[in-house]
């Protein structure tokens, strides 16, 4: 059994979710190869070669792969992946965009967002916004799977010395072109990798009031997230959304501020180790999952918390 | 330009689902069913394209049981012109659904296919991308903005780091994210008119598609529950607990 893991990367660097995906591959068992498809992605490939437990790194370096356009990357992955027992990618926006296209090209079903490996063909995954956990078994010749990062502790980024091999293959399919991107710039840790996350909801009242959360986050070395209500209201951009359809996080400490705790939000954060809720409504459902609840006006409690930590 | 919109009948957004005692699935007896919220956004986007004069005809398709006609009638009331039900009582996987949609695309020849990014029951987020592979069309997934310009469509996508815009050659596939638009409600006169709009029923075998699957569900369980903790009285007490009891700061 040999498993192909599709690296999540920015060409210049490997994204942390790759390490969780390799961890899931290690649970399945067998040799692990990592594919780095990108453009001028040598640095990401070198980093992939150092991941503990990786036997080989395949590098497809082509301008057509620079922005991970699925029309170009999926045929490459399908072609390379044919001989493997499993193809895994992180359930990031990129992995979710590419992998179903790979599965259909190989004429196999895909299994989305696994959170546990039971055996080489049996996996657990959440359905109904995490309100049920399904155990599914695949008889496909190639098992194509996306991995929810929070379900697997990352493997060590260092310690491996895999051979790096250049591969060719499909290039520009001519169906799509990259136009541009607006990426959030932040000195704070990435939401999905942060040890502490401070999130705000509708109770923040407006975008400007998020400055209280930024101040607290900077004191704690935390990332800042938001509920769907806060994003829909335009307080903050979409990349900050924590929840079923946003980012799934599981930090050591999650501080929910002015968040009522809709089920879709809980689906994105309930695997956090410790949950703190600050809300002036003592009936808010968020208190049902919080380890520590504080019924208080957030505009008094958050600045005080910032002073005391 | 013809637009094909694919929708799914799912358990209503507001229903709290329960796992069956025998762990065979979730209990859907007597629960309210609705159109998947992401699919409502897809219908709305198609209707807006028609209102702008970009789309000339909107065909709505669903794959599901006979009762899924309700969701097709809803889409017709919102502004779709005609409907196709691919009737299947079985719960189908995304690949089977994508193959059925491919057969409908071959027949209807739409320039744009719009569908939700995921269904809130299976949470797969696969069908649009799979249809992309099967048709060879470009895909603009997780769309927050769609602009048709000549023989191209520009799609702004919600990605982990922010927003990305891609230009796709038509025909193309768009899957919708939450902030693409805010769906309207159907008016009573439009609900009445929708009853007279054409609705065609076909079966997977009519379309010559096998819906066999390589994945089977062995069991469905309730997730581990998290019990409520304690209420603290002050910020000072909270900080003390986080430092000395939870040891997380």
TrEMBL record, chain A:
InterPro entries: DHS-like_NAD/FAD-binding_dom, ETF_a/b_N, ETF_a/FixB, ETF_alpha_N, ETF_asu_C, ETF_asu_C_CS, Rossmann-like_a/b/a_fold. The keyword rRNA-binding does not apply. The keyword Transcription regulation does not apply. Its cofactor is FAD. Binds 1 FAD per dimer. FAD binds at residues 202, 227-228, 241-245, 258-265, 279. Pfam families: ETF (PF01012), ETF_alpha (PF00766). It comes from the Bacteria. Keywords: Electron transport, FAD, Flavoprotein, Transport. GO terms for molecular function: electron transfer activity; flavin adenine dinucleotide binding. Heterodimer of an alpha and a beta subunit. Belongs to the ETF alpha-subunit/FixB family. This is Electron transfer flavoprotein subunit alpha. The lineage of its organism: Bacteria, Pseudomonadati, Pseudomonadota, Gammaproteobacteria, Pseudomonadales.
